[in-house]
Amino acid sequence: MLLTTLALFCCTALHGDTPLNPGDGATPNAKHSETIIVAKVEESKLPDAPLAKMESVSESSSNSSLPAENILPASESFLKTPVKPAATGSYETARQRKIWYGLVAAGHSAAVFDAYTTRRALSGGYGTESDPLLRPFANSNAMYFATQVSPAVMDYLGHRMMTSDHPWMRRMWWVPQVAGTSLSLTAGIHNYRLVP
After folding, report:
1. E strands along 50-127, which residues?
2. Which residue ranges make up each domain of the chain?
3. Which whole number is the average pLDDT over 163-186?
4. What's the CA gap between 87 and 72, in Å, rounded?
5. Is the distance from CB of 164 to CB of 91 less than 8 angstroms?
6. What DSSP element (H or E) covers 193?
7. Which phi and psi angles does 113 have, rounded to 5°?
8. Residue 171: band (very low, low, confident or very high) from pLDDT cuts 50, 70, 90
9. What residues contact residue 177 under an 8 Å CB cut-off, 6+ apart?
10. Residue 110: count of CB within 10 angstroms of its CB
């Protein structure tokens, strides 16, 4: 903070007429003072801010033979064009989103229940895993993770159907999640009944 204050003080202490090079001397020479005066006169001729487009067009058209009323700004044609939305709107509602999250929780819970009952039945010697994709994971705890793949795919499919452009898909978005949940629950209940 001290360095910042010192830098600001040093910068404000410099005056525009003081020479920047120590070899120039304390008094500026005549040629240097003439350039400063010419620069100040030219600065006084410049406007403080840029002129509006219509003013500059009307000033330039007053010198030409075209009347100023016929000249329109170039941006007017852009403003008359219809605005295209940046992205398509989502058909998903807050109620559907809550139901979707509920079905996500139900589907993954049913898959955990199915994995638990399958491991319980296999460890007791009451059956075998009938799904060939899950058979390599049946005798380890990896079964819990492997059974989560199917509900995740159904969640993705259900969300894509919920936000689809097709009306019939938007009406049936919940079917993949409910089907996956019901299959996992059915398999879990079957496995649970196998063990006495």
Report:
1. none
2. 2-70, 94-194
3. 94
4. 32
5. yes
6. helix 175-194
7. -60, -40
8. very high
9. 100, 103, 104, 106, 107, 151, 154, 155, 158
10. 22
